[in-house]
Amino acid sequence: MRAIWKGAIAFGLVNVPVKVYSATEDHDISLHQVHNADGGRIRYQRRCEVCSQVIDYSDIEKAFEEDGRTVVLSKEELKAIPAENSREIEVVQFVPSEQLEPMMFEKSYYLEPDSKSPKAYVLLRRALEDTDRVAIVQFALREKTRLGALRIKDDVLVLQSLLWPDEVREANFPSLEADVRISAQERDMSAALVESMAADFDPASFTDDYQVQLRQLIEAKLEQGESLDTEETFGVEAGEGSKGEVIDLMEALKRSLDRKRGSGSAAGSAGDEAGGDSGGAAGEGEEETKPARKRSTSAPAKSAAAKSADKPPAGKTSSSKSAGDKAGAAKSSEAKGAASKSAGSRSAAAKSTAAKPAAKSAAGKATGTRARKPA
Predict the structure, then answer these.
(1) pLDDT digits (tens, 9 = 90+) for 276-317
(2) How far apart are CA 373 and CA 362, in angstroms?
(3) What ranges in the chain are assigned the alpha helix state H?
(4) Rounded to the nearest 5°, which phi and psi values hold at 11?
(5) Of 2, 272, 298, 319, whose Cβ has the fewest other Cβ atoms within 10 Å?
(6) DSSP state, residue 324
(7) How much is the pTM?
(8) What's the Cα-to-Cα distance from 160 to each of 9, 20, 130, 149, 244, rounded to whole Å?
(9) Whole-angstrom Cα distance, residue 92 to residue 9?
């Protein structure tokens, strides 16, 4: 056993240091809940109703509500209450054991001497034995001030916590106030029945049949292979993976709208580029909305087209070829310069039309001859 609390019994001027142990335990088979579809464990989470987050136990405080108002009490404030800090089991009086109402008994604790010499412990035990009385005590345990009875069981002091008087309900049943007549014969028969079942109480002669049958059922299912790998019944632990986060509805909607707007703007940009290359008209003086780096990819192609259009026939002299190359270079630099300037959102057809007279003019200036028709 493990001590759950340490304190001292204050018996007049005598102080008896003791360790407190739980004297009882639950023998029921421990069962947990699972999902009937896949056997997964059911997890209960401490979730805040304001922010919808899963809260760690260390971040939880206690509170009291009354008349629509809630008062939050921190752990430090609760520990500061003098009764909570008391480690004393104070004996207040000694009473006959038959005066204790069994309904008031709550939980039992064994007390072990917690000093090098158990003399004070034995002295108190002998005093209770000699007087055949029970010591009524007051103590604080687990954030609650309690009333208790100190008695003896097998040479060990037992602390029996008691309910406070206002915690025991009053039995008020009007049906029992009815006038009921019982004959002497009925009373004699009842007494004879009681006498036939009379015996000394032996707790060991009684068995929890339900727990025995439950254990038999579990063992039978194990033998038949009707079981799951325990590790497979666990999902993501709290604090891992999703961390128990709950996506807020408004946040989810906002993200959806942002994604749609992003895809819409991307589609719009692609449409503008496609429209510009397909010959959509653009007014003069309009600023170019597309970046220059996008248009720069088409400028070399236009320059090459202009070069091929201005390529001289095979019969021309080398001077005319040189002039043609100069004209092509001039047209290429002129096209690149036009790409770097914001000349307005013109279509590919308009650009091609504007390039033709420019090519003719540049060729005429470079060769001194008539402009050649583009191929």
Answers:
(1) 444 444 444 444 444 444 444 444 444 444 444 444 444 444
(2) 13
(3) 75-79, 82-85, 119-131, 184-196, 209-223, 249-277, 292-295, 299-309, 318-340, 348-367
(4) -115, 85
(5) 2
(6) H
(7) 0.57
(8) 14, 11, 20, 5, 42
(9) 11
